[in-house]
């Protein structure tokens, strides 16, 4: 920018600000900038992530990253004890190593080696310590505990919806608060959209930094969302799974052929949890999930995937996915479905498959309970007519709220609790499993804080000047304001406003007083 132009913009800014004396302009957010070096690997292990196998009582995996110079790596594992030299009983396992050459891939542009190990033949219900390295440079010793074998004992796990945006900035507080609330959680369900741009190294670095050592000590159970799929370059038309995904996660390969490590299941205690990839191959997964549901004897069945069967937010509907999967879930009486995608919160349920005895209050009986949640900082508005038109009833909802969920199972009882990023209980219910009867449903939302909407929380969109909204809607009848962003930089000071009416969209610029500039 030339000196004359800079001076001109300076005086323009003074002129604009002078016209708004007495009017408080919205605070503009200064997003962090990250140096390229920040996301690059070193010879020391980083991005250490723990996961479990199909049987978490005997198998676990660990994956980590180094520079491509480290072509040989190891993991060491021992039963942890209070004596500091427990490592005397450790065994050393050589890691499998893959080279991640993404130098030519847009937004990845990096070369690294990933290393992974499966720990097998572990003792159930036992605390282990492990470390990873190349024989000279080692991580700290990290502890985890295997699952009990064939147990109905109490255990908990965490579930989070979309991380996606403002990952290091805002998801950090959420995932750390979840650990404070449930430090004994056995694993974390990530219901897709862990990042915004599938192949973006900076965003994956944010995800690993935000969770820090939580990723390496509590098992990850991730499934991909639509934002884990993207073109490899502007010239390619086909969307591809994040190039990082299979390098950085080592997951059970018990899913449908061709969908390994994106659709899989795990049996923990008296629960089977199934992860589906709702982005691709729906028919193939329907056949597979029908097969594995017909062959489980677990008391509890939970399914997780990204695209909701019953959409929480306005303008979304996954009709084909719903019509394919819901009959299967109904047939096998799936207890709970955990979803993401809609950047809001909704919890509801379908009617039980079977008739119950006359005189029984049906509000106390339930079929599958469906939940949509969001953990990151991007927010959408709720569907205005709730779940009207769906074969389901919505019981609880939220807008503009970062949430995490703690799910606890003990014998025939499942307890679900949703918490805000500051640890307030937002939603809760219990399911009681009865032999040959639908689940008993116990509503606990009276224990929670008042329902949250855009109307009773800190504004998500920047507030417009007085009278500007009326002027916009008068000029554009039938439209709805769907986005307001206040800009204050050297090129523009004012408001960028998005209006929508069905498929029609208008992008409008207003000055600081709300007057039209277009």
Structure characterization notes:
This is Metallophosphoesterase family protein. It comes from Flagellimonas aurea. By secondary structure, this protein is of the alpha+beta class. It has 2 domains: 73 residues, Nuclear Transport Factor 2, Chain: A (Roll), CATH 3.10.450; 305 residues, Purple Acid Phosphatase, chain A, domain 2 (4-Layer Sandwich). The protein contains 8 helices and 28 strands. The strands form 6 sheets. It has an 8-stranded mixed beta sheet. The longest helix has 16 residues. The chain is globular, with a radius of gyration of 25 Å.
Shape: globular
* CATH fold group of the largest domain: Purple Acid Phosphatase, chain A, domain 2
**Structural classification:** alpha+beta
The percentage helix is 10-25%
Give the radius of gyration. 25 Å
Total strand segments: 28
Span between N and C termini?
24 Å
Strand order of the largest sheet: 11-10-9-22-23-24-25-19
CATH architecture of the largest domain: 4-Layer Sandwich
Mean pLDDT: 93
Number of helices, counting only DSSP H or I runs of 4 residues or more: 8
Question: What is the CATH class of the largest domain?
Answer: Alpha Beta
Keywords: Signal
Pfam family, one: Pur_ac_phosph_N
Organism: Flagellimonas aurea
Protein name: Metallophosphoesterase family protein
């Amino acid at each position: 920018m030339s000196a004359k132009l800079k001076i001109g913009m300076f005086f323009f800014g003074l002129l604009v600000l002078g016209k708004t004396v007495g009017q408080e302009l919205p605070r503009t957010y200064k997003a962090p900038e990250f140096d390229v070096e920040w996301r690059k690997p070193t010879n020391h292990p980083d991005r250490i992530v723990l996961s479990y196998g199909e049987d978490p009582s005997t198998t676990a995996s660990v994956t980590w990253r180094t520079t491509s110079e480290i072509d040989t790596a190891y993991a060491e594992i021992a039963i942890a004890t209070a004596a500091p030299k427990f490592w005397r009983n450790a065994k050393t396992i050589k890691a499998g190593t893959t080279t991640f050459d993404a130098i030519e891939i847009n937004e990845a542009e990096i070369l690294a080696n990933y290393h992974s190990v499966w720990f097998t033949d572990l003792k159930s219900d036992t605390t282990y310590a492990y470390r990873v390295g190349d024989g000279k440079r080692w991580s700290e010793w990290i502890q985890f505990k295997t699952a009990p074998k064939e147990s109905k004992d109490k255990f908990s796990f965490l579930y989070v919806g979309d991380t996606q945006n403002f990952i290091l900035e805002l998801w950090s507080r959420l995932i750390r608060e979840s650990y404070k609330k449930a430090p004994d959680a056995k694993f974390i369900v990530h219901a897709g959209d862990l990042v915004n741009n599938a192949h973006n190294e900076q965003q994956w670095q944010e995800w690993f930094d935000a969770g820090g050592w939580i990723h390496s000590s509590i098992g990850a159970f991730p499934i991909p969302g639509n934002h884990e799929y993207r073109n490899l370059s502007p010239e390619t038309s086909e969307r591809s799974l994040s190039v990082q995904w299979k390098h950085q996660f080592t997951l059970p390969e018990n899913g449908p052929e061709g969908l390994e490590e994106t659709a899989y299941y795990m049996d923990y205690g008296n629960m089977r949890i199934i992860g589906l990839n709702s982005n691709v191959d729906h028919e193939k997964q329907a056949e597979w999930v029908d097969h594995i549901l017909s062959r489980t004897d677990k008391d509890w069945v939970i399914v997780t995937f990204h695209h909701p069967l019953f959409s929480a937010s306005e303008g979304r509907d996954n009709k084909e996915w719903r019509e394919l999967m819901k009959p299967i879930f109904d047939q096998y009486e799936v207890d709970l479905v955990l979803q993401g995608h809609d950047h809001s919160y909704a919890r509801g349920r379908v009617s039980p498959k079977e008739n119950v005895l006359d005189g029984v209050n049906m509000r106390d009986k339930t079929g599958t309970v469906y939940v949509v949640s969001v953990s990151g900082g991007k927010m959408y508005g709720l569907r205005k007519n709730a779940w009207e038109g769906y074969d389901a009833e919505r019981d609880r909802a939220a807008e503009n709220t970062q949430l995490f969920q703690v799910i606890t199972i003990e014998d025939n009882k499942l307890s679900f609790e949703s918490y805000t990023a500051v640890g307030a209980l937002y939603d809760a219910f219990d399911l009681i499993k009865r032999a040959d009867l639908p689940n008993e449903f116990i509503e606990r939302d009276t224990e929670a804080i008042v329902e949250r909407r855009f109307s009773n929380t800190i504004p998500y969109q920047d507030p417009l000047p007085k009278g500007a909204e009326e002027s916009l809607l008068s000029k554009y009848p039938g439209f709805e304001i769907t986005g307001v962003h206040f800009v204050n930089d050297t090129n523009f000071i004012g408001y960028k406003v998005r209006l929508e009416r069905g498929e029609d969209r208008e992008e409008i610029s207003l000055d600081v007083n709300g007057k039209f500039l277009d």
